[in-house]
Amino acid sequence: MPRVFDISQPLHAGLPVWPGDTSFKRDDTWTISDECPVKVSKLTLSTHSGAHADAPEHYGRDGVDIASVPLKPYLGECSVRTVNGTDPQVQLDEINWDRVTYPERLLMRTYQSFPHDAWDHNFRAIHPDVIKKLAGLGGLLIGTDAASIDPETSKSLDAHKAVEAADMRILEGLVFDGVPDGDYELIALPLPIQNADASPVRAILRELS
Question: Of 85, 156, 159, 169, which one has the fewest beta carbons inside 10 Å?
Fold first, then answer.
């Protein structure tokens, strides 16, 4: 039986979010009682809460919303690879490209242990050259456990712009704790939220047969 790894962040009060963005909150609308047979909740959250998929309109004026993106990039074979460099951005030479079996979807682990409880201002972004190399290999999607593929202080968003130029897709905020490097089936479908710039995802990896 193939193993399945959940690589999503649990969504909860206190979830670390991008500085200035909307905190996650869940409130009861109704609770089960003698007068009410069901529990129903209300959510307040950013579209970039936890593990999420960026829509092209997040980083491009003419980009489509998350409800309009094709689902193919978020579903299929992928390669998970750990990058151990110390540069603020993942560099081309950190990746053994000969071992990236499925360049259509490359997921990068930058943390030894994911920082669930605190925001990391110094997460490792991805150099645009990595995006360009992946695009040349037929890449459809780049994923990372970091909060963004660009540095927190970036105003030019060079990695996002490289993704835009290649018409690729982005997953950010993934969790690879306990996941061995290797090849998997990725399932990380965004919600069809109209006019939204991103969507949280329930991202899983399934071992290939």
Answer: 156
The residues assigned a catalytic role are 58
Q: How confident is the model at residue 181 (pLDDT cuts 50, 70, 90)?
A: very high
The domains of the chain, with CATH numbers, are 4-8+49-207 (3.50.30.50)
Which residues in 59-159 belong to E strands, given as ranges? 75-82, 89-90, 105-109, 125-126, 141-144
59-90, pLDDT tens digit by residue? Answer: 999 999 999 999 999 999 999 999 999 999 99
SS3 content of the chain, % helix, strand, coil (to 5): 15, 25, 55
Q: Which of 155, 102, 166, 100 is nearest to 129 (CA)?
A: 166
What is the distance between the alpha carbons of residues 198 and 180, in angstroms, rounded to a whole number?
A: 28
Instruction: Kindly tell me the burial class for residue 154, based on how many C-beta atoms sit within 10 Å of its own C-beta (0-12, 13-18, 19 or more).
Output: middle
